[in-house]
Design brief:
Number of strands: 10
Largest sheet: 10 strands, mixed
Shape: globular
CATH architecture of the largest domain: Alpha-Beta Complex
Distance between the termini: 47 Å
CATH class of the largest domain: Alpha Beta
Strand content: 15-25%
Structural class: alpha/beta
Number of helices: 9
Amino acid sequence: MEHNQTDQPLVSVITPTYNSEKFVHKTIESVIKQTYENWEMIIVDDASTDHTKDIIKKYLSSDTRITLISLEENKGAAFARNTAIDNSCGRFIAFLDSDDQWLPEKLEWQIKKMLETNVAFSYTGYVVVNENEEIIGEENIKSSMLSYKELLKHNDIGCLTVVLDKKQIGDIQMPDIRARQDYALWLELTKRGFQAHGIDLNLAKYRELQKSLSSKKIEMAKLNWKVYRDIEKLNFFKSLWYFMHFAINKTMKYFK
């Protein structure tokens, strides 16, 4: 049942966590600081082995809008997100991972825009920060609307910026795969005709943790190929066509 303290539709914030003790407090506080107040935050801890749960529990008594669900064993981000979605009550579903943050006006801007234009699927730009909160890059909106075929060529949608309207879309679940499950969901939604509408504002902070960027790029390329073949069931030549576009777009971004 939706909260009734305001006439704002309830937004369910979906947050999977795993060993996020270093940054999860910043993630939670960025939601608490939202100028849009009618939200619930459902955090699903994916069997963390550090102090993540202890940090989250400190917020539960001070803000009843925050809920913690603890998984007994590690199931992966897709399972954790789907568990949160299954336990959500909001008309709108918003995604925020446990090392990322939102700017205070993020939900207010985005929900207002979606309601005004009757959009079911929206995303925004975001800045990239390092572990010390220094801005090291940004992902600006390149297209005001992304269709299924465009999304196959390049995924410019940051999961931390996406808001979905369940009133229009219906029930939402991510494919239960270990990685790129968000991309697979965006493809499913656009294939069903819900184009992704970009809002040309940087309203979130994505944290780039210290890992080998080259190995991450190779891994992402392999995962994209897997999505084309195993999830989208594209034949080899179509998969190769879209994969070439994906590779070219990534290479051009790298050399900018």
